[in-house]
Amino acid sequence: MSEESGLVVGVRVSPRARRSGIVGRMVKGDGTVALRIAVTEPPEDGRANQAVCTLLAEAFGVPASACRIIRGASAREKLVRVAGDPAALSARLMALTP
């Protein structure tokens, strides 16, 4: 497995939420689909980003070190790479939200 194998997931993050979790999906203006994620951490010192990676790692069943933000570290809309088997990760992604 190469370092670049895995899945890139678009997310829209709501920091300082009452409860952390994947709350749904959204279709962006360009037609792509992103996960809507709520985290209780504030967007300060990378705490919300770390919470996003921890949440996605749990959802995909991978270690937290397998997730990293590749774009949008200081924005609400981010791209996150989840390392692992792309087929297995895609199946988990489809099962995450209705």
Topology:
Layout: E1 6-14, E2 21-27, E3 33-38, H1 47-60, E4 67-71, E5 77-83, H2 86-96
Parallel strand pairs: 1-3
Antiparallel strand pairs: 1-5, 2-3, 4-5
How far the N terminus sits from the C terminus, by CA atoms, comes to 30 Å
Major beta sheet, strand line-up: 2-3-1-5-4
CATH hierarchy class name: Alpha Beta
Q: What is the number of independent domains?
A: 1
Question: Can you describe this structure in just a few lines?
Answer:
The protein has 98 residues and is of the alpha+beta class.
Features:
5 strands, 98 residues, 26% helix, Conserved Hypothetical Protein Mth637, Chain: A, five-stranded mixed sheet, 2 helices, alpha+beta, globular
Task: Provide structural commentary.
The chain has 98 residues and is an alpha+beta fold. It has one domain (6-96): YggU-like (Conserved Hypothetical Protein Mth637, Chain: A). Helix content is 26%, strand content 35%. The chain has helices spanning 47-60, 86-96; strands spanning 6-14, 21-27, 33-38, 67-71, 77-83. It has a five-stranded mixed β-sheet. The longest helix is centred in the middle third of the chain and has 14 residues, at 47-60. The protein is globular, with a radius of gyration of 13 Å. The model has no long low-confidence stretch (mean pLDDT 91).
